[in-house]
Amino acid sequence: MLIKRRRGWEMPESSATPEAVYLDRRTLLRAAGFGALSAVAAGLVPEVRAQGVEADPTASLYPFQRNMRYRLDRPLSEEKDATTFNNFYEFGSHKSIAGAAQALKLRPWTVTFDGMVEKTMTVDIDDLLKQMPREERLYRFRCVEAWAMAVPWSGFPMKAMVDFARPLSGARYVVMQTFMDPKVASGQRQTWYPWPYTDGLTIAEATNELAFMVTGIYGKPVPKQNGAPLRFVTPWKYGFKQVKSIVKVTFTDKRPVGYWEKLQSSEYGFWANINPQVPHPRWSQASERMLGTDERRPTLLFNGYGEFVADLYKGLENERLYA
Ligand code: MTE
Question: How far apart are the CA of 239 and the centre of ligand 1, in A?
Answer without folding.
Answer: 6
